[in-house]
Design the sequence.
């Protein structure tokens, strides 16, 4: 089993839709989790940290489920500008998921 | 706000040539990392340096060497480039251990013919 697993997508969603991605991790001792956004041929940029109690930043909500060992990212009211690849990161060994590609369609 | 600076941004090499990719950060971060990213493979860790004076192998270290020259700089060397090393290389830094995110450079696009 890979340390961090993500569905590579693509997820094609209409503008205004709500979309959710999950990311599973194998090491139960993992302590820190992040979501990054990567635009085509650009460097990954931090989108948000993931806290145990869940956290929200505008239209984005991140959650952690330690019992099932996954983190999630929810995007509400999708914008065209949200089209990108979303990478989850589990920091026990700074391991990146493969990324989930999101395409928001007008 | 320079953050993490990588040079060069693009490079084409012939098989067997050597080169060094440079990375510098101005955030006083302790940890630095080198990744490669290939289509469909995600980011894979080549080497990292948890602090000045230490380096450790990551997931795909073969064919590479690194030097943590000082706290700011972490270079990646290809001694004898191979076509399989054609990739986009990202350098990243992080304040230290614990729940700290990484900050990435713009990347170096390397093609080996």
Sequence:
């Amino acid at each position: 089993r890979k340390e961090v697993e993500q569905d590579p997508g693509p997820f094609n969603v209409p503008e205004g839709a709500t979309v959710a991605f999950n990311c599973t991790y194998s090491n139960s001792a993992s302590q820190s989790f992040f979501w990054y956004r990567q635009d085509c041929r650009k460097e990954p940029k931090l989108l948000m940290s993931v806290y145990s109690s869940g956290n929200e930043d505008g239209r984005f909500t991140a959650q952690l489920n330690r019992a099932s060992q996954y983190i999630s990212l929810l995007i509400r009211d999708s914008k065209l500008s949200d089209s990108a690849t979303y990478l989850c990161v589990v920091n026990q060994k700074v391991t990146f998921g493969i990324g989930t590609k999101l395409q928001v369609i007008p | 706000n320079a953050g993490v600076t990588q040079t060069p941004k693009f490079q084409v090499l012939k098989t067997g040539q050597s080169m060094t990719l440079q990375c510098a950060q101005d955030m006083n971060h302790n940890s630095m990392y080198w990744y490669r990213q290939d289509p469909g493979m995600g980011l894979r860790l080549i080497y990292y340096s948890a602090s000045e004076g230490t380096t450790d192998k990551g997931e795909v270290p073969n064919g590479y060497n690194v030097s943590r020259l000082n706290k700011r700089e972490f270079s990646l060397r290809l001694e004898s480039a191979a076509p399989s090393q054609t990739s986009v290389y990202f350098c990243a830094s992080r304040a230290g251990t614990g729940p700290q995110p990484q900050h990435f450079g713009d990347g170096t696009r390397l093609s080996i013919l």
